[in-house]
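Hi C.,

You asked whether I'd gotten around to modeling the 334-residue construct. I have! Everything is below, sequence then structure, no commentary in between.
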Amino acid sequence: MASTAAALNLAPDLLSARPSREQRSAASVANVSEALFKLAPPPANANGRFAPSPTGRLHVGNLRTALVAWCCARSQGADFSLRIEDLDSERKRDGAAEQQLKDLAALGIDWDRPVVYQSERTSSYLAAIEVLRKHDLLYECWCTRAEIREAASAPSGTPVVYPGTCRDLPRAELQARRAISRTPALRVRAGDQVVRFFDRAHGDCTGVVDDFVVARQDGTAAYHLAVVIDDAELGVGEVVRGDDLLESTPAQVWLAEQLELAVPTYAHIPLMRDGAGKPLSKKDGSLTLAGQAANGLDPDRVRSDLAASLGLCELGEPIDIDQLALRFAATLVD
C-alpha cells in the first residue's frame, strides 16, 4: 500500500504524527486538532455545520474540514447541520450537491436535520435586508469590480477595499444613476469599522470592515449576508472552516451584530496543500473519493488517512467515525 502522502499527493508536513507536548507550544502547529484547542476551551454552544458550494466533487481537503467540523460538534454532544451554498447559479454544477452528500455519508458524517439549500431561503435574506434598510445601513452601488479596483488603485490579485464611490452621492447624481438600465447592488454602511474577534486556531484577530455588498445586482443575497442569516437560523454556535475564510470573519461578525443576532465562535483550520504547497483544488479529480478509489483507497482508508493528518491515529491504522469523534474529544482535556 502506498504511503498516505504518496496516495493523497499531499505536503508531508500535514501528515506528521501527533506532536509531543513540547512541540504543541510551537508557533507553527501542523496538527489541526491540537491547534484548534490550544488557545481556548470549547464554546458553550457547539452546534456545527459544513457548507460546501456545489461547484464539483469535494476533494480530500474539503472532506477533512468537514470531518473536523463534525468532530467538533459530535465530540461535545452538539448538533451538526449541512448547508449547500448554491446561490451562485453560474458556478454550480448539476448533480454536484447530491454527490457531495453521498461522499460525506461515505466517510460516516451524518447530520441532524434536512439539508439546507440557500437557493430556497430568499425570504429570510430579504427580511434581513429590510432590517438593514430600516436602520439606514444600506445604499445603492452601481460600481463594477473593474471600476472599484481602478478607484482603489489596487494592483491585480490584491484585496480591494471599497472606496465609497456611491456612498453619499448627491441627489441629482443618484437620480441619474437610477435612470440607467443597470440595476444597483446594495452595500452596507460599515464605515471601515475595526472588528475584533477570537479564533480558536488563530487567537485574537482584528479586521477592518469596508462597505461590502449584501445584495448583488441581480437581487441575489451576497455571501456575507446569506452565511450570517443561515448560521443564526440554524442555531450554529461554532463555525469551523478553512483559514482561507479568516478574512471574511470581521464582516460577518459586524453584520450579525447589526442584525442583533448571536455571533458564533470561530475556528479557521489550515488548508490541506499539495506537494508544491498550493491549496487543493476540485479540478484535481484524483483527490476526490472517486479518484482515491481509482488508486485503491476506499472511503474507510481515506478517513483513516485524514485522521492521521489530524494526529488522531497512526498512518494506515483503521479508525471508524465513532472512534474518530472519541479521540477528537480527548484533545479537549489532554
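If it helps when you're writing up: The first helix runs from residue 4 to 8.

Thanks,
B.
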